[in-house]
Amino acid sequence: MSPGTTVLGQAARWLLLVWMCVVIWAAFFVVHPAEGFKGQASRIVFFHVPTAWVATLAFLVSCVASVLYLTRRRKVDDIRASVSAALGLAFAIMATVTGSIFAKIEWNSFWNWDPRETSITILLLMYAAYFALRGSIADPELRGTLSAAYAILAFIAVPFLVFVVPRIYWSLHPDVIGQTRSGGGGFDAAHTLVLLASLAGFTGIFAWIFSVECRLEHLLRRRQEELLR
Amino acid sequence: MLRFLAEARAVLVKDLLGELRTRVAVSTLGLFAITILVAVAYAVGPFRISAEDRPLVLATLLWIVLLFAALAGLDRSFVKEEEARTASLLRLAARPLAVWAGKLVLNLVLTYLLMALIVPLFCVLMAYRVTSVPKLVLLLGIGGYALAVVTTMVAAMISRAMTRGALFSVLALPLLLPLLIFLIQGTAAVAGGDVRALIPAVRALISLGGAMTVASALLFPAVWE
Lengths: 229, 225
Hints:
The complex is a heterodimer.
Chain A: H1 7-30, H2 45-72, H3 75-107, H4 115-135, H5 140-168, H6 176-182, H7 189-228
Chain B: H1 2-22, H2 24-44, H3 54-73, H4 76-83, H5 87-93, H6 96-125, H7 133-158, H8 164-192, H9 195-224
Helix pairs in contact in B: 1-6, 2-3, 2-6, 3-6, 3-8, 4-7, 6-7, 6-9, 7-8, 7-9, 8-9
């Protein structure tokens, strides 16, 4: 029996639904707009930061699965690596869109070539290239090997893009968690609580979609193999 | 260790002799770089950029010329083995790491030759004044090495794919963009005389180049065999 069809799996999905409803309700109706932000702009942070976090997590999972594929040569690891990279790409696009909306409200422009905006663009290009590589190789084993190597190389650049570039070059991008820790303006304890709850909720959404997509990809590949026989 | 060095040296000598005979990579890289440089020098010229913007804009143009020229020819190291059907023989003759080291040094030689040709020409044609030549040479050395590491690994990957030509740029460019950010900022700092801005760029370049070297050395056997 697959994990999605067990009672525990169904309960976890219902819990995730209720959790996300509470997060959305808290983000829009419980906490007041944070200080230091224009109008209601701070509310988008509850969704922008978790999507960016999940994108980074997904790229990490893709890298780990790629390492496992190169060591164990099991098909399931290649499926996990490609599914996780696709989800990372989707969440990175969501982070870019929500970030752009925030930038328009805060800085009156959707795109400013800020170090963080530049970093996420490069990440999007890297993982789009990963899928271009996968599409250019017909042999499944060779495709798995080369794309695993590329995913690992791409992930090496992730810490530099996410942590190094925005810290060594001047950036407009606010650091809400950092401000809270230092006790400065911006996010207070209630905001941080909602943000952490949203982070947990989005991580749960990622885990759920990841398991569903992996099973779906596995079935699709099995069907393909049966058709080719 | 001695056998490894001998194999790597043999791979390098074979490729260098082949290159001296045909001059495909050298002429592709050189001509491509000079063509872009002439186009840039004609379109932008040495005095159309304000003095304030010169360090950053000219650093960007310099690295664009170098990067695009590198992308035009550095994939040859592996692609030619597949095209000439000598890749299988090379797999039998040398261990993977020796092949990787030999090809890396070849790409390094080509990159440094390209830089030796283009950087002085760029400085003359664009009236680009650099306050500290040794610091620029250091940056070019580190940048050229990182460029060669990434392109060698991507060349090995695309040589085994179906659509080689376009795929090399598609795969290599996103991996090179973080390096390019640090290289442009570092070169602008050298040109503008801001040494403090150079240090974080050099640190980031060394760490990213080092990480890419270790990862490439570990991954190459899986890609090659």
